[in-house]
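Researcher: I'd like a candidate sequence for this fold, 264 residues long. If you have to choose between options at a position, lean toward the conservative one.
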């Protein structure tokens, strides 16, 4: 197994050498990405290499009038690379192996109709809702995002990272279920993960039931899968908020994503 991993890394290194994002374009793109400013030079180099490989292996598709520039493509690939660059440290396959269950990102210029119908279960629970979306993903499909919401913006306490949200769902799906529990690394504790997320999810739900304004996006209370995805947005954009409100969740995400955004 170790030999296979070494060969995979050698092949990846060869691809990266041939397909690196041009340095001038790279600096031009990341200057517009406040989220990149917390990473130091060696981390940025690793993120650049991963973004280059994402551009080589994944398809970015512009539809409904969306117009791509090289800079926009680099920004989208860099957002994806930020999420997984720490996985190289886990020594459980390359970071790219964590992106194996999707091959394309479809980009709309603005929010899009999800094409669903309103469906209510026999016990009165809304299980499907039609309307406008900023992002969407399906178990066997690609990732769909709205560039108007996904484009770089000033970092704020109310996190909004559309691509990262949808990628979190894809990570969640790697073990076959969409339940807020992605495959954990070998050095992580399943019980501690469940305790941290279940207690935080219940706390958020109780805040809403009591009419209190929550510190994070209330959409996280939809279900455990959305709680994980929203927590991921806050982890990368507003880590101090997440650490203050749900410190145990923040800690588990540092172990999972193999990075500490508040400290890096």
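Model: Candidate sequence:
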């Amino acid at each position: 197994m170790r030999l296979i991993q070494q060969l995979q890394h050698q092949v990846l290194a060869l691809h990266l050498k041939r397909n690196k994002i041009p340095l001038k374009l790279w600096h031009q793109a990341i200057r517009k990405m406040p989220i990149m400013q917390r990473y130091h030079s060696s981390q940025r180099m690793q993120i650049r290499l991963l973004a280059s490989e994402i551009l080589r292996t994944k398809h970015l598709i512009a539809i409904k009038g969306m117009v791509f520039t090289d800079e926009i493509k680099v920004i989208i690939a860099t957002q994806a690379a930020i999420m997984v660059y720490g996985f190289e440290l886990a020594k459980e396959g390359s970071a790219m192996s964590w992106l194996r269950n999707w091959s394309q990102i479809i980009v709309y210029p603005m929010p899009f109709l999800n094409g669903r119908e309103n469906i209510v279960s026999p016990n009165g629970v809304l299980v499907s809702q039609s309307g406008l979306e900023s992002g969407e993903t399906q178990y066997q499909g690609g990732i769909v995002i709205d560039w108007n919401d996904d484009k770089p913006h000033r970092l704020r306490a109310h996190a909004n990272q559309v691509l990262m949200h949808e990628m979190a769902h894809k990570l969640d799906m790697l073990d076959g279920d969409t339940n807020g529990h992605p495959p954990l690394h070998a050095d992580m504790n399943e019980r501690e993960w469940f305790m941290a997320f279940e207690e935080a999810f219940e706390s958020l739900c109780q805040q809403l039931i009591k009419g209190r304004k929550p510190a994070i996006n209330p959409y996280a209370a939809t279900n455990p899968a959305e709680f994980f995805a929203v927590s991921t947005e806050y982890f990368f954009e507003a880590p101090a908020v997440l650490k203050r409100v749900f410190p145990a969740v923040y800690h588990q995400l540092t172990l999972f994503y193999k990075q500490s955004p508040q400290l890096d």
